[in-house]
Design brief:
It is a single chain. The chain is an alpha+beta fold. It has 2 domains: 93 residues, no CATH class; 283 residues, Umud Fragment, subunit A (Ribbon). It contains 8 helices and 21 strands. The strands form 5 sheets. Strands 1, 2, 5, 6, 18, 19, 20 and 21 form an 8-stranded antiparallel sheet that branches. A 5-stranded antiparallel sheet has the order 9-8-7-17-16, with no helix packed on it. Strands 10, 11, 14 and 15 form a 4-stranded antiparallel sheet that branches. Helix 1 packs antiparallel against helix 2. The chain is elongated.
Amino acid sequence: MNRVAKPLKPAAKTSPPDVALPETRSEKKAVWRRAVHLSREVPWLLYRHKATVPLALQWELADATRGLRAAMARPKAERPWGELARTVDRLDRDTERHLGRFRKSRTWQYVESLGGALLIAGFVRAFMFEPFTIPSGSMLPNLRIGDYVFVSKYIYGMRVPFTTWRFFGFRQPVKGEIVVFEHPHPKQSDHDVLIKRILATPGDRVRMADNRWVVNGEPISVLQRGGAPETCRQEPGRGCWSWSKANATAVDGVKVVPAERGCPCIAFDETDPVRKKTWVTQVRAPESLCVCDEPGAEALVDRAQAMPLDEWERMYEDVCLAGRVPICNHPEWPLAEDEEALVAELPKGAQFVDDASGRRALVIPDGHVMVLGDNRDQSADGRYWGLVPIDHIKGRAELLGWAKEDFGTRWLRPLR
């Protein structure tokens, strides 16, 4: 049998305690929070339990709530804080007396609020946006290790967690976009999730010529400052050894010395011919010893000291350009050995063909993209392990949330 709430007692028979007039800012905030809570709670309780609450009591509590809202609607400078505090106190006591058994405890209210916030945060992270921290220097000079970016997960379609099934996709990935993706061959990397730039989409024929990326026979890379070397943007703590032909003689050999200001690099502007979006990449200048601080660099430098020029050049070609040291990319791609190494990794439909110039190029099949790092000579990317299935892409890097710069900190900058 349902319990019926008692009607409100006549106001004349009640003797509410005196309510202190709120004077300080914190006291006014406390009154305002109680007023906001009551203005929402009472109508909800009356709606949920209207079958058990007498109609007269419903009217009285509804009238009291409307009076509370009228007092709250007054301009802040004219707000009657004393009247508002008394109204809040009276309505709170009446609600507790007649609808107290229906009210939620303060602990349960906190639990509900926290649960709702966690649910919203989980939905946003799973389907909308996700933070990502840059794990390596492969995206220099644009993104450094430790930079904090926000990834849009809905642009290519919301992906059901722990699956590759997507829904509500707006469009497919396009060239020039920076994407975060699951490594298609995780055993070949220290990181299961990587960030690179898309440089080829289904149907493209791609290759690299003299460090320039060529798409469908057209290079998209243009030298900055006429190819004049400048200091590389590189990972913290990395050194570099450089050499100079001009100072080399048959007697003294090649002088290999630590670079005082880091490795010399050549910068390129790359532009997507369709969307006209431009970004910057860097490659090591010819005088950079390709390994820098990679494993084996010190031994290689020791061998190179006072080495005859012709022997040095042979070593540079055999060791550096042939890729026999980690993360050292050839200015031409694909080479014959690249085709042999990648043939087992490529998906169905991908193949190496001759383009219009007679050079070998890779054809990108449906459902896949080619990704490269902007730091071309220190990036283990699609040139090593092949193509990325579109289903493996978690989202597009949209916004640089936080980044440490040489002269300060960058906040909330769109990526390009």
